Amino acid sequence: MINFIICDDNKEFSEKIRKIIKNYMMNFDIVDKFYMYEDYGEKFKSEIKNITGFKLYILDIETKCNSGIDATRYIREELDDWNSLIILLTAHNELKFDALSNRLYLLDFINKFDNYENKLKEDLDRVKKNYDNREKCLTFESNRVIKRIDFKNIVIIEKEKDSKKCIVKATYGDYIIHKTLNEVFKLLDKRFIKTSRSSIVNIDQISEYDYSENKILFKNGIVTFDISRNNKKKVCNNVKSS
């Protein structure tokens, strides 16, 4: 999934940006989600903290409440998010130097009155390549330390009983992640499938599936019987095609 976060105090212009992106994304089998804002107030700051996954920000430099440069600095420095892509928009080209001199790692700086549609489409090509080549790992925080687990090494992810946490079982150990199973699932790719409401498995790590016993045996010897009746056929089909 690609999350598009657009902030511009001109609703008509924001909608034009959204339509350009929507038409572009129709060419690809990628889920998109839009978050639309008119300023960089508390709603913007509080909500973007909880947006997970791949993100592209398209921010107007000047709104009635704060600036796009300050918002970018908040994303980079306060949220410590150096992975999201950011495009700044403006009607004042003289602000370009100010934006770039802040060393906030922008994807682009687009002038609204200088062929912005074509420039945005060119940037979307770059975004698509970045998305296709993104790091294939699960990133999470544990005891104030950022940890990463390569997707290929994740075997199974299970919901911890009576909590909103998950246990990630990898080939080299187990980890607790403070996210719900659905939140984690959104961060994964197509090699992962849900087998029930409380578990996700990596089909590349499956050694065999015993349909009669409803048992999955993984390559590292782990076994799970947590496959719901509705998911038995899905598991079977995925094991056969892997």
What's this entry about, in short?
This protein is of the alpha/beta class and 242 residues long. It is built from 7 helices and 15 strands.
Commentary on this structure:
The chain is built from seven helices and 15 strands. The protein is of the alpha/beta class and 242 residues long. It has a five-stranded parallel sheet with strand order 2-1-3-4-5, with helices on both faces. The protein has a five-stranded antiparallel sheet with strand order 10-9-8-12-11. Strands 13-14-15 form a three-stranded antiparallel sheet, covered by helices on one side. Helix 1 crosses helix 5. The two termini are 23 Å apart. The model has no long low-confidence stretch (mean pLDDT 90).
Secondary-structure topology with pairs:
Layout: E1 2-7, H1 11-25, E2 32-37, H2 42-48, E3 54-60, H3 68-78, E4 85-90, H4 96-101, E5 108-111, H5 116-132, E6 137-142, E7 145-150, E8 154-159, E9 166-170, E10 173-177, H6 181-185, E11 192-196, E12 199-202, E13 206-210, E14 215-218, E15 223-224, H7 232-241
Parallel strand pairs: 1-2, 1-3, 3-4, 4-5
Antiparallel strand pairs: 6-7, 8-9, 8-12, 9-10, 11-12, 13-14, 14-15
